[in-house]
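Can't paste images in this forum, so I'm doing it all in text. The chain is below; anyone willing to post the predicted structure tokens underneath?
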Amino acid sequence: FLSSAFILIKRKQRRFNLPPGNIGWPFVGETIGYLKPYSAISVGEFMQQHILRYGNIYKSNLFGEKTIVSADAGLNKFILQNEGRLFECSYPRSIGGILGKWSMLVLVGDMHRDMRVISLNFLSNARLRTHLLKEVEKHTLLVLSTWKENCVLSAQDEAKKFTFNLMAKNIMSMDPGHPETEQLKKEYVTFMKGVVSAPLNLPGTAYRKALQSRSTILKFIERKMEERKRKMKEGKENLEEDDLLESVLKHSKLSTEQILDLILSLLFAGHETSSVAIALAIYFLPGCPMAIQQLREEHLEIARAKKQSGEMELNWDDYKKMEFTQCVISETLRLGNVVRFLHRKAVKDVRYKGYDIPSGWKVLPVIAAVHLDPCLFDQPQHFNPWRWQQNNGTCGTTSSLSSPNPTTSGNYFMPFGGGPRLCAGSELAKLEMAIFIHHLVLNYQWELADTDQPFAFPFVDFPKGLPIRVLKSHEETSLAVSAARSRFI
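Text version of the structure:
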């Protein structure tokens, strides 16, 4: 009987035509090698070797689970388009433990849809046009107005200050520089260090400290909730406090625990990824002077038109004129790959290109591998914003860098994921980058003050914080920052 059962099990295993690969050590598999830090403008030595040996689709054992890793553009798109049918989100339990079981990042099914609807309503196109654009410009200018000529500062920290203050204001109406805002920011920094650390819940570890900071942050948010409920009950709510907390309390049926995790996850998503993307743009641009020059010309034209009209604040029409800026943003996201891979799980047996993906197996679509694929992007390690234009140019090089074929690579450019779980804040992130770049190139020149580069840990980060030296103000257009002091400070 036992021998017959063993034969049946072996037959069942043999029916799957799994991709080639190496399962590695028991339990840990190849996780340590996969997560080893590497340059963010590459896929890393580990993945490069695996692709060369096994191809763009291979099997492994990562995060304690049997895994199919995909560097294949077609499979990645297939996975994301079949979210909820053939695949579902499946992040490691350590991520859920620190972000919360009601975090949008780990939720699946109807609950994720409901949380996503709340986020999309808050980040709607109408709200971006009428409210958030002004908020983004205000917080950009508040940060840039503190920069002094010839000073050295951490561009990564400045970008994080900008995005954190923006999200704290629009989620809970917290003012920049206020003691409680600064205290929350301090706790959040500790929290973030744990999110990107090894999930070791031991005394003194970054993960344990992050869990403690999570508890502190949630208590803070809950106090804010109780204060807001009391004001609403007394009829004293401030109608001008058009924030997410107010909206959720008034228009949703979420429990307290669900609201806490929603706010924490939006603070995480809206702050961390956008700040890294802005830091990446600041890092890439000095290596491409022609891009900076074209950006300045584009934004000078907008600034001159504003001056002639007598208007001060940017509006949606101004934003839509930032065409080359959008090319810079796309190229920054392609080359820097803030979101490098996603965690999914097969909920049914799937066959793709002759390979089987068994139900229950983890699937990792590696977005970065596609964005850095030389078959899709010519000279993929080169920062070339013109590749996003039909009539492309060059970036100070002797060879022409081709634009992506819209029928091929354009379809596989997925910096914000795709399918039903497409990042709800993608349009806000691009707006933040565009407005920050607008005021940055008009008012400052900068250079790297020390050698630094983005590394994947697996989240993208600058080990030294990206120190830059602010060299010079442009007198012709520095009125914007001066105006910021009078309007916002």
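Residues 393-407 have pLDDT under 50 and may be disordered. The first strand starts at residue 38 and ends at 39.
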